[in-house]
């Protein structure tokens, strides 16, 4: 069948003389190097792109909108027929990792473990796109390049923790930094996985941080750093699917091959308090047929109140009370939150899990048209590596403004799904920081949890039905007659200025919004937000 007939059938334009077609490229390059079990294979691969099917992948590429939010926002398409330089696919294959992460375009392709296309193969891909991206064309000679990924990954043959730490580049010397390491991470063969490692900083004074930079070993995609509101005391890495993300507060992205080191706007800092623990989320894609042992290192840049006088705190708009029906397609929820005071916003990101097919966040001001602040269509990326919007000139919210968050999901499961298996959250940093702000499903306006000082609670905060979490002070007597939570923890820990129940056995003993923290010194009930 001639290429003209194929074009008439809707399979693609006719090829220019000497240019290959997608059929030839798919056979020699994409089906071999991209349709890896851990990457772009199956019914839905990473970034909602699979090369398992010839026609399906072709249709997804031609004028397809990238799942990467920054690339989509810049107006790029996966393949722009006739223009290789404007095609996101070609950028991902030819640009180096640092150039891509600078623009928040993710990792260079392919990831570690797969030999990338060589000069002849890249020239064939360029010729195909520039010729109009036909389905069929001439044959070509494919080649592979030696995979140089030193700029993206830390090479290390060690498997013991102390020896692995020696493989990383030294801590930066352009300021004061705190370096943290994950434990060794076991990455199964042919698997994409996110592992969460709890880190006890053992600090006596608050830390003020304005930047995070990370290093990963072969197959690393990105690192994210959180504070955990419900530390488990288990320091062995866990599959992040087993971690309740609702009890985490995002701190910063910390780089990796597909991530971006987060530097807050000048003069802005975020705080980690004594008693809090960090949780490092490590995203890895093992494209090989053997398990690997890796480790991540994160450098937290420390600042001072003089250098960073703007203290930013967390603000989360949340929809946590929903149920996505079984087999539902395009199930949508809308959450609005009305502001009662002015806020400066310094950072913003959206979050769903992998069933998310649309997320948007709008600012509504008076009778004006809604202002779109954030938009994404790939739940998998929103879960693992969302676009982070930083505002070097603060985004200003005014009293009376409304925030509208819209989430849409496809649920292919035979059972209904709710929180926390799926999520709908907008996370922001705001100032002036006065505590952790939340605006949940039934909140019409933001609610402040905690205060702006180095305490978990502020005067007037009430506890749950058992009294857990009520504000208290040393020898203040606030916990006397307070249900079953009659002990004020501030007598032992200045951060924990709330009433608690000791010797709990399970979370259910602690009442709503609290959990049972188990420690060698004894068990006590802790509010989830502390």
TrEMBL record:
<feature type="domain" description="Copper type II ascorbate-dependent monooxygenase C-terminal">
    <location>
        <begin position="321"/>
        <end position="440"/>
    </location>
</feature>
<protein>
    <recommendedName>
        <fullName>Copper type II ascorbate-dependent monooxygenase C-terminal domain-containing protein</fullName>
    </recommendedName>
</protein>
<dbReference type="InterPro" id="IPR036939">
    <property type="entry name" value="Cu2_ascorb_mOase_N_sf"/>
</dbReference>
<dbReference type="Pfam" id="PF03712">
    <property type="entry name" value="Cu2_monoox_C"/>
</dbReference>
<dbReference type="InterPro" id="IPR008977">
    <property type="entry name" value="PHM/PNGase_F_dom_sf"/>
</dbReference>
<keyword id="KW-1015">Disulfide bond</keyword>
<dbReference type="InterPro" id="IPR024548">
    <property type="entry name" value="Cu2_monoox_C"/>
</dbReference>
<dbReference type="InterPro" id="IPR014784">
    <property type="entry name" value="Cu2_ascorb_mOase-like_C"/>
</dbReference>
